[in-house]
């Protein structure tokens, strides 16, 4: 049951992050901001979908639960875009209240995602018996971890 709840917390972080990105895209009115957001959104959704799918598979949820989680992940970004489009006529994304609200929501979802990545996902892989017995695998894994972190950080250039 602990495994299931940790993956459900991961989905909560991913889903809240997806809604916020969708809202940002929905309220954007300039092609200069829409193009980078679509690029970032595509990469985020692609890799988060793979990560979440792997976690759902590893947790061995029942078919109905796995389907509900996958559908919930699939509809959150379009829902955020729809909400953003609906409020874009009267929403000022540069107002102090909007910036504070977005900062708080971003930090909450980032906190969940970073915690889950470090404590539940990476830790389980890096402390496994297979990893501790194979030095080459350790070096390759750390290299790929830092490469992935660097590539994800480079997305901030366009976000």
From TrEMBL:
The chain crosses the membrane at residues 66-88, 108-127, 139-158. It holds the Pfam family Zip. It is found in: Membrane. Keywords: Ion transport, Membrane, Transmembrane, Transmembrane helix, Transport. It is a multi-pass membrane protein. One of its GO terms (cellular component) is plasma membrane. GO terms for molecular function: zinc ion transmembrane transporter activity. Its main location: membrane. It comes from the Eukaryota. InterPro entries: ZIP (IPR003689), Zn/Fe_permease_fun/pln (IPR004698). Belongs to the ZIP transporter (TC 2.A.5) family. PANTHER family: PROTEIN ZNTC-RELATED (PTHR11040:SF44), ZINC/IRON TRANSPORTER (PTHR11040). This is Zinc transporter 4 isoform 2. It comes from Hibiscus syriacus (Rose of Sharon).
């Amino acid at each position: 049951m602990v495994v299931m709840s940790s993956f459900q917390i991961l989905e909560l972080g991913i889903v809240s992050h997806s809604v916020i990105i969708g809202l940002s895209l929905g309220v954007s009115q300039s092609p200069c901001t829409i193009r980078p957001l679509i690029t970032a959104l595509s990469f985020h959704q692609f890799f988060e979908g793979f990560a979440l799918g792997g976690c759902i598979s590893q947790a061995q949820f029942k078919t109905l639960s796995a389907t509900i989680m996958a559908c919930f992940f699939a509809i959150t970004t379009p829902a955020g875009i729809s909400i953003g489009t609906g409020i874009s006529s009267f929403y000022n994304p540069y107002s102090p209240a909007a910036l504070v609200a977005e900062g708080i929501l971003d930090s909450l979802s980032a906190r969940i995602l970073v915690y889950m990545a470090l404590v539940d996902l990476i830790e389980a892989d890096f402390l496994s018996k297979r990893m501790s017995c194979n030095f080459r695998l350790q070096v390759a894994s750390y290299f790929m971890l830092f490469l992935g972190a660097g590539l994800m950080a480079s997305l901030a250039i366009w976000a």
